[in-house]
Amino acid sequence: MNPFITYREKDDKGVLQYYILQRDFPHLVGVILPNFTIGNWYAPISGYMLWVNFTGTLRGNQIPSYQDVGKEIQSILDNMSCWFGEQRIAMDEKRFKKFKINAATAI
To answer: Would you say 61 and 25 are in contact if contact means Cβ atoms under 8 Å apart?
Structure first.
């Protein structure tokens, strides 16, 4: 079974977003964005100008409270990033072509 699922839904501003959800506890939710939000947890998707940004849990804009939860969240976001690249982008590269990093877009 896949550790994550993806879905599309409108955010608070009515913009359709691409989300990724962790199936197991603590059911973290990330949103796939072409930029990252400073101050939040995020993980880059390798080879693309896309990031998985932490948006909360399945229960809403909450985080679990126990020791080292920040490290756990970052680790899960890193795994989400790798999984999204392998399971979503690699399966439909044309769809994500405009976000691909190449020599012309590299700084």
So the answer is: no
